[in-house]
Amino acid sequence: MSASVVGGYYKKDEEPGFCFDHPHVSTKFTFLHFYCPVILQLNNANIQTESDACIIYKSGTPQFYKAVSGELLYDYIKFEADDDFFFNVDLPFDEIFYIDVSSDYKTQMKFITWALTEKLTDQSTSIGLACANVMSELSQIRRFSSSRIKRENEINFKLNTLRKKVEQNPEQWNVNLMADDYGLTRSHFTNLYKDHFGLSPADDIHNLINEKARHLLETTEMTVNEIAEACGYTACENFIRSFKKSNGLSPLQFRKQKKPEA
């Protein structure tokens, strides 16, 4: 198994306030290991990790991360490889996992950092082998026994699945229905949802309905009354008032701005 490494660094540090936010990264794989707690964004959800969290992004997955507080200290490898590169290692993609850092891991990461700056000789083969060694070592030092991590993953999956259901027809949902679907009381569910997504379920429903209204105004010839009804409003004036509060324009003003006359 081999890889073509295009970038890598051991214990890279960024100043407080640094935020990496790239919706499109072309490199096929990006491995990240964070020495400090960070906030990652996965499936439109903000997830706060503990120290020694890792993730392997595949190309096409938006990348967002920042330190919870203070400086950001992390390792990374950006590399190209065939899918069978991971045939003999048990590692997830686009999913957080944790490791217990080993001396072998440190040695390989230090070598990659040094070799990428060595310009006198071609180190590409050795760097590719070191990358493979890192992936193999990760599969050995990955923590499998943490029931807490397993529970967090289950919670993340259930919340993300529920939100995808709500996205389909947000006007048909309210907080009570969402809490019942998840199996918690309204107050407990609201706190859990806000911790996970960074906003309350009521605010999220409102935003999703607003997105639907904007989409219908931009892409259809439906009247404002029809759009109000499609968005769950029984009174069109309430829809207009809510839309203007969220967007700074009335529905007709928004449509005219987005679809100017020829």
Write structural notes for this entry.
The protein has 262 residues and is of the alpha+beta class. Helix content is 46%, strand content 20%. The protein has helices at 103-117, 124-141, 147-168, 175-182, 186-197, 201-219, 224-230, 236-247, 251-258; strands at 4-14, 19-22, 29-34, 38-42, 45-48, 53-58, 63-67, 72-80, 97-98. The strands form two sheets. A five-stranded antiparallel beta sheet has the order 1-8-3-6-9. A four-stranded antiparallel beta sheet has the order 2-7-4-5. α1 (103-117) packs antiparallel against α2 (124-141) and α4 (175-182) packs across α5 (186-197). The chain is elongated.
Give a quick summary of the entry.
With 262 residues, the chain is of the alpha+beta class. 46% of the residues lie in helices and 20% in strands.
Order of strands across the widest beta sheet?
1-8-3-6-9
Shape: elongated
Low-confidence segments: none
Strand content: 15-25%
Summing up helix and strand content along with how strands pair, one would put the structural category as alpha+beta
Per DSSP, the total helix count is: 9
| Oligomeric status | single chain
Q: Main β-sheet, in a few words? A: 5 strands, antiparallel
The averaged pLDDT comes out at 90
